[in-house]
Known about the structure:
Shape: globular
Number of domains: 1
Distance between the termini: 6 Å
Number of strands: 0
Helix content: over 70%
Order of helices and strands: HHHHHHH
Structural class: mainly alpha
Oligomer: single chain
Radius of gyration: 18 Å
Strand content: under 5%
Amino acid sequence: MPLHLFDWIHLGALTAMLLAAMWHDTATRRIPNTLVLWGSLTALGLSLSPHGIGWGSALTGGMVGFLIFWVLYLLRTVGAGDVKLAGAVGLFTGHPDMFLVTFLILLAGGALSLVWALMTGQLGTTLLNLQTGLTQLWMNRQHGAVSEPQAFPVGKTRMPYALAIGMGTAFHVLNTWQSV
């Protein structure tokens, strides 16, 4: 089935939002709220189109992305801008696709984190944090809560997670549209 003009507009809007977010996050380590707001409003408008995914699917997808990344924000693994960006991506992709998109984003984030740590000379700290976290998790499972949780050293240069959000979303879109 060939792609319609609506599909290209939808892809263009999603791509523009993600590219701008990736650029801003890489340059300033911030994702502007106005960018996410305009992307979200565009996604909701497109969802109401006769060719759109529907209001319910868009809102549910947005909530899936937002809530999963909100939990990651509470664990201090992503920033607030990443949470809002994931919610906006969910408005574009809808439900149930956002579950797969989130999984792909997390896979891309893991791979990019290792590359980022290697490029910034923080690979040793990153692997030590991973070992400490897994050991602490295992000890908590075996023996109950540890009285004093371990502190994880955080490097000065954190990876701009919008890159992972963009890569995971791009992989999903390309894989979905390749089969069309």
